[in-house]
Design goal:
688 residues, alpha+beta, Aldehyde Oxidoreductase, domain 4, seven-stranded mixed β-sheet, globular
Length: 688
Amino acid sequence: MPAFNRREFFELAGTGLLIVAAPLASEAQRGGGAASLGARLHIGEDGFIAVLSGKVEEGQGALTELAMVAAEELRVPVGRIRIVMADTDRTPNDGITAGSSTTPRTVPQVHRAAAAARSLLLMGASRKFGVEAAALEVRDGAVAHGGRTYGYADLARSPEIAAAYKDALPEGTEVTPAKDWQTLGKPQVRLDARDLVTGAHLFPSDIVRPGMLYGRVLRPPAYGATLESVDLGPAQKLPGVKTVREGEFVGCAAPTSYAARKALEAISSTARWKTVEQPSSDGLFEYLKQHASREDRTPARERGSVARGLAEAGVRLKATYQVAYIQHAPMEPRAAVAEWQNGRLTVWTGTSNPLGVRQALAAAFGLGTDKVRVVAPHFGGGFGGKHTGEAALEAARLAKEAGCPVAVHWTRAEEFMWAYFRPAALIEVEAGLDGNHVISSWDFVNYNSGAAAIDTPYRIPNVRVRYVPSDSPLRIGSYRVLAATANNFAREAFTDELAHAAGQDPLEFRLAHLDNDRIKNVLQAAAGKFGWKERRKDKRQPSRGIGLACGTEKNSVVAACCEVEVDRQTGSPRVIEVVEAFECGAILNPANMKAQVQGAIGMGLGAVLREEIRFKDGRLLNGSFAKYRVPRFQDMPKLEVILLDRKDLVPAGGGETPIVAIAPAVANAVFDATGKRVRTMPVRVPTA
């Protein structure tokens, strides 16, 4: 059976689970995952097994991955597992769904819980059969011996097993090693695929509660604007409309979304705002440098002496890289439904951080967290952009005033302007080569975007890397793999410049500076499949070039080779082919992993080719899909993904790192095609 549909998700309690279906709130809130087996896994009267996780499914495939893990340890088909996720009243505290953390942190918890459950069931069967557990056979949700069979549901009725479910998960529970996997490691179609392709899946914006109204919120006309006055009277005269003003918060709710929009228009027509001067994207990078924090607030990571290394270098190079703000642009904008009952608040919303949103709601309304429940149904894309709960707070405020459930669905324009952005970055790099054309010194500073993957993986004796925060003119936050994209772009593009200055092949130059065998392996795999050495020798068509790049983050490694063609008149690159190799330890679901890498490449191409937030006077200049063009099908190149499956390594998350190699690979290919270096994202080929 597939995972719970949304109605089953909301109605889980009372479905005939033998073990209590919902853990106590105090137990679910404890850090470090489920405190007991009963907080993680339940066996149903119908033979199905429910696995509970505080993680959120937002398109990355966690639901299927967790089901496969439980099925592996319990020796049942994947379809026998039901996954219940992201409900602060029912599921354990697995932390925020971010940082590719589900695989390295939550998967081991589910592994242990399912293995512990199997061990308990075997012990129960051993008593019933009167034989050692080692003599029993476990298959398809049952334990067999000598022609007799006991199903898991029969065994779970044992008082001893029921009591053991309340105990803490035993430490040191042995799980099935990767080399012996029967379910994991094999391609598995997503368990929610049918609902997704048939439209049966209910997203947060599809939720409807009895008597629900639709809410809208008054937004400022520009960043930094403050409300001086507003008249709610015109909106209050409209039928069925409720209005709220609490300080700067002004909103309304109405029986239909159309009526809510008309009420908001009536309010907006009376609003008077005070605006302040705001910077423009045209002068963004000068602004970031001028408004940088004092560097002594962010200590440098150093080894050796960069000053001495540069002074002694035979060749010195300097370059500055610029990376624009971009928006997450999920297909589903922020959405929430809030409902108050007997002083208790329940919110359904698309967020990667249900516990954090619950805390924010509790603080906003002066409630204990036990009075707030947050449910995060599987939602339509986040990419790091939905760690916060703006729509949840707005819906809760409106619902409290209206006395009935209220839904708040952000418009596309609101999502573009008022959600947070991937930080822009200004990166300055200087390095030197010694007399043997070896990198002897490396000085790297990132302004504004962050320190993720800021350290160089290359063998360099004298290194200094720094992250310097700046007073960002736009609201910034998490984005897929954080600042690693910007840092890897600058590092790998500059490494190509060093290879060129050394008169060496970019692949051989990198391999000569690497001690990390995992990075070497993906580089060689990608280059081999791409035919790097042969294509370097071949005479290519005019305006065509090839490039490569590699990187590491989140305990995984990636390398990409690509071919581009540059339009000589516009300077715009067209990516013709990409071969990317990726390794993140033992692979749990190869089908999902391949899709993750393909998606990361596609998403990365958007930032390479044209994604860039433009702004002036506190307003966005391209806050719509018509003006802010994410990748289309026509932008996708010939694409080949190579997955290196390392059964000897623990699984690492694979949703983020594959994005970091595509931008520098394209930039390096543009140089190969034009002889001009690219130091901006999106890529702009210098015309001078």
